[in-house]
Structures are given as C-alpha cells and as structure tokens.
Amino acid sequence: MGEDGHDLVRVDGTGTAHPVGKLASQRMRARQGAFRLMPAPAHVVVMRRAEGVEAGSLRLCGEITSASALCDIVSMVGQSAWTGELAIYDGATNRSVFFEHGAVIGALSSAEGERLGEMLYRYGALSLEQLQEVARAVTGDVRFGEMAVRMGHISRETLFQLMGRQIEEIVYAVMRAESGMFYFLDRFDEARLTSRQNLPVSGLLMEAVRRMDEMRYFRERIPSAEHVPDRVPDRPPPTEGDVVQIYQAIDGVRSVADICRAVGQGEFEVTRQIFQLVQGGCVTVRAPRPTGPAAIVALFNEAMSMVMREVDAVKRGDEVRQHLASFATGAGIYDALFMRAGPKPDGTLDDGQIIENVAMLVGPDQAEAMLAQWLYDYVSFAIFIAEPVLREASTRSGAGAPLLAKSVADIIAPLAPSH
Asked: CA-based Rg of the chain, rounded to a whole angstrom?
C-alpha cells in the first residue's frame, strides 16, 4: 500500500503531522477534530477520536498481506461468538461484515458488482432497463430493494433470497482479499443493515476455501466471466444433472455472465458447470469478442505480425505479400478499407486510419461488426497461403504450418462472425 507516496504523512521534530501526498491530505481532512494518540509500537500510529462519535471499541486490526489471510480472522470471530463489524479497506473498495454472536447477519460493499442492484442484475432478477428504472426512482427514504418490490419488478421473497446471496458473495470477497487493512469493532449501527440474515461462519468458511481452490483450476479453461462457451457440433448433449440447464443456455453468443443472468445462478456455480461440459468434450470456450474497433484492429495486428514473422523467417514473405495484395484487390473492399492504413511490412495496420475508413464505408453503427468480419476473413486467407509456404520450407520440416495456424486461429477467434 502507498508505494507511490500519495498516502505519505511526515511527522516533524515538534510532533506536528504534515500530509505529504494528496491521498493523505484527503484522508486527514475527512477526520478533522480532536483525537487521542493510543499506545502503539514505534513504527505504528494509532489515534482514536476523543469525543462526539459513538463507535465500537477496536478489538482487532492489521494489514492484509496475502490471499485468504482473513479466513483465520473470520474463523476466530465465529468461534469466539463475537458481535461487531469486520471492516476491510484496500484504498479503492470498502467492505463490512456484521456479526452477531459469531454468525454473519449482514454485509455491505462499495465494490463494483457487489451492490444490491448489480447483484439482482447479475442473477437475472432484474433486466438492465429495470435496474436503471429503479435506480432513478430510489430516494433517501426508500432503499433500492424496497423500490424494486414497490415497482413490481421483483417479489419480496426473491429479494430476501438474493440479499442473502449478496451477503455470501461479499463474505467470499473479503476472504479472498490480498491487500489492505482490516478492523474489528465490537459494535455497529443497526440501521446500516439492509437485511438481517443468519449465516453460520463455519459453512461460509468451507465454501470460501472450496471456491478459492476450485476457481483457480477452472480459470485455466475459462479465464473470465466474459468468455463465451459454445457447443461442439455433433457431440451428444448431456441428458441429466445440473449441467443440462446450462448446456441449453449456451448458444455461442452468450458469455458466462450472460448465462448467469439467463439461468439465475452465480458466476461460480455456472463456471463450475461449464467446466464440467468442457471436460466432457461437448463445449468449448473462446475469448470474449473485442469491444470497439480499436480492440479488433489490435487482434488483427497481433495475428498478422505473427504470420509475417514466420514467412519472413523462411525467406518467403514477399511471395505471401503479393498473394495478400491480390486477395485484397479482388475482394473489392480491402483497398478502400486499407487506404492510407497499410498493411505495413510486418502486416499490421494503423488503427486510427482503419477506424476512420470503416466508419466512412458502413457508418458508425455497423463499423464494429463489419470490421471484425473483414479482418477475420483477411487473416484466414493469410493462414491459408502461409501454410503451404511453411510446409515447403526445409528448415521447418512441416512442423511450422500447423503450429502457426493454431496459434493465429486462437488469436482471431473472437473476431469470428457470431451465429
């Protein structure tokens, strides 16, 4: 924390504290008033507001220096049957878990994706339009969940159930924290609870550890919730088990996150079931489709530079460039698309010029889809003509072509036309 110096405070010879960094200044301005300096080791400063604030006593505090470090803290709070608030701060995100006699009864989070409205959207309980409608209607007197119920978008029973899932997700995120500070206070303001649940700490700990272990394994095949699973043609579908519903929701267009909303399940559960389908050979997973023309051109440039590097290495690059030039002219679109943008000798294009050209050709609304299709076709042809060239190269002994084709195909897979 704070290696950039933004949170640096200097204490001079008179004992006066001077905020040096901008972040330190902001934090200290937010704490104007009188504080008591508490006894502490020489390398630590602990101060507590002297008066005017009813706050719990600080029972525990410390630095988070490794993943799962807070599992021991949560376990101790549960086994000791403490009541209070475990607050976690990492600079950008604040989370709080509320305990009563050792059980988790509530949680709050400022993290993206963990707030109630976002959670209801992630689980498919609200559409994006409903989420925005409720957010606009929320007032200081009516919270988000209550407003969603009043507007008829969700039942009170479903809201209660998903608020429980929200608390679980926040607790799991707390136990995955890799950096920051934690504090345990022996009381909290009851009004901060948005929902009162009763979740045993032992069950939460076991599930958190299981998720951390298994998700690392799943991420080798399904790197993120934005990746897109697709059915393998001619492979029989599953006929029993929880994976059947997930398989039916897979259409080659929906991402893992989209499938979560479609089936009303969390990311971990859906990822686990997709992993089972991948292991069974009936589903594959591809990278998410790039967002925006610039990202599309970046993938194209990565793929084409790889192709040209390989054919130049066997002294056949000029031949491949001539075939590509003929293809571009014959296709009737690439001359206009590539105008003043390349290709350069290494096969890459100027992204700014390409974006300008495609917008002029098809308009901004169609630019992304058409650019992806055109560049995908161009790279596919480049692989087609590079393969025999590399097979003929005595230094490659036929091994280079299939390796190149597989590597380039993986890069451009997100550009493939959706079906």
From this structure: 28
The tokens of 65 are what? 């220096």
The token duo for 342 is: 């390349």
Mean pLDDT for each 10-residue chunk of the chain (419 residues)?
Answer: 74 91 88 88 87 76 87 92 92 90 93 90 91 89 90 93 93 91 91 88 93 90 89 88 91 90 93 93 83 85 88 87 90 88 89 89 84 89 85 56 70 72
* Beta-strand pair 35-38/46-49: antiparallel
| Cα–Cα–Cα angle for 345, 347, 350, rounded to 5 degrees | 95
Q: Report the greatest alpha carbon distance in the chain.
A: 83
DSSP annotation of 256 reads: H
Are the C-beta atoms of residues 270 and 260 closer than 8 Å to each other? Answer: yes
Backbone angles phi, psi at 283, to 5 degrees: -140, 140
CA atoms of 290 and 302, how far apart (whole Å): 13
CA separation for the pair 131, 34 (Å, rounded): 43
8 Å CB contact between 296 and 349: no
Helices (H), 60-194: 69-79, 116-122, 128-137, 144-150, 156-176
Bridge partners of residue 94, in order along the sequence = 89
Q: How far apart are the first and last CA of the chain?
A: 46
What is the SS3 assignment for 311-362? HHHCCCHHHHHHHHHHHHHHHCCHHHHCCCCCCCCCCCCCHHHHHHHHHHHH
Q: Is the Cβ–Cβ distance between 144 and 117 less than 8 Å?
A: yes
DSSP H or E run through 47: strand 46-49
Question: What's the CA gap between 226 and 253, in Å, rounded?
Answer: 11
